[in-house]
Design brief:
Number of helices: 14
Largest sheet: 2 strands, antiparallel
Helix content: over 70%
Strand order of the largest sheet: 1-2
CATH superfamily: MetI-like
Strand content: under 5%
Shape: flat
Structural class: mainly alpha
Order of helices and strands: HHEEHHHHHHHHHHHH
Number of domains: 1
Length: 295
């Protein structure tokens, strides 16, 4: 094996297919989108270079873009905090129970493998003002709110509803990642802490938390990037309404590109989304220091 690793020809031979796939599938489309983002390009015309006009219009004259940017940031912050908090709580709870662990793991993880489109339609039905949850509340004499139609407030009620549905769907993914990290910690470390007089709370604080920090960075990065790119549930539950109040960057991009066929303008939105994902990843990696421990 060491001989192969020292052979530069072998290294080139094995890396070339991966590099070709990376270039064709990822790098070239990104470069193409960067070019389209500085062009006036729609379904009826060829790309015409216009400089930064698309970006200027995005941040100066596009009210929907401002709403989408605000909602995307809210959705990212809400998902990052809630997913980490509740995902870690569930992981710690399930790793400390002896009976029914696999059953509860499957229950919490099941929504992750279901179709987001189907779940979006299901929850849209549940939050319909004339049926579902409101019908149940009416049995107790309570008039339910317009869960997916209310448009007042800095962050309207439909965005909160969608955020909680997304938490329900993806909390199992964060939980499983934390469980994999926690179960990899040697039991000898916990036994040693108990011998030294540490309680379970102290053991969690001084043993578990430092050792799962690498997984914290991984899950936080995945949650933030996934939240910024979020599309399925929002589009199936509200289609960005009412009056664009639940638009996020992904839905605004979809509308501009596939409804209005403004390919150049949609490409500019996708570049903004790409930059935000890279920026968030950079901030997380630089702000959270990971120490190497033997587990």
């Amino acid at each position: 094996m060491e001989k192969i690793l020292r052979d530069k020809k072998a290294i080139v031979l094995f890396c070339t297919p991966a590099f070709i796939m990376f270039t064709l599938i990822l790098l070239l489309p990104i470069l193409q989108v960067l070019y389209y983002s500085v062009c006036d390009y729609n379904a009826l015309s060829k790309p015409q270079f216009i400089g930064l006009k698309n970006y200027i219009d995005l941040f100066t004259s596009d009210e929907t873009m401002r709403i989408a940017l605000k909602n995307s940031i809210f959705f990212m912050l809400f998902s990052a905090v809630s997913q980490q908090l509740f995902g870690l709580m569930l992981a710690v709870f399930l790793t400390n129970i002896k009976k029914g662990r696999n059953f509860f793991k499957n229950i919490y993880y099941l929504p992750c493998v279901l179709s987001s489109a189907a779940l979006g339609l299901l929850w849209a039905f549940m939050f319909n003002p004339k049926m579902g949850l409101n019908q149940m509340l009416a049995c107790f004499g309570i008039e339910g709110p317009l869960w997916l139609s209310q448009s007042t407030g800095f962050i309207p009620l439909p965005m909160w509803v969608i955020a909680f549905v997304a938490l329900w769907q993806y909390i199992g993914q964060t939980m499983m990642l934390y469980m994999a990290q926690i179960t990899g910690i040697s039991t000898e470390l916990f036994e040693a802490s108990y011998i030294d007089g540490a309680s379970k709370t102290d053991s969690f604080r001084f043993v578990t938390l430092p050792l799962i920090k690498p997984m914290f960075v991984t899950t936080l990065t995945l949650n933030c990037i996934g939240s910024l790119k979020f599309f399925d549930l929002i589009y199936n539950m509200t289609q960005g309404g009412p009056n664009h109040r639940t638009e996020v960057l992904a839905t605004h991009l979809y509308d501009q590109g596939f409804k209005y066929f403004k390919y150049g303008y949609a490409s500019a939105i996708s570049v903004v989304l790409l930059i935000m994902c890279l920026l968030v990843t950079f901030i997380i990696s630089k702000s959270i220091k990971i120490d190497n421990y033997e587990i």
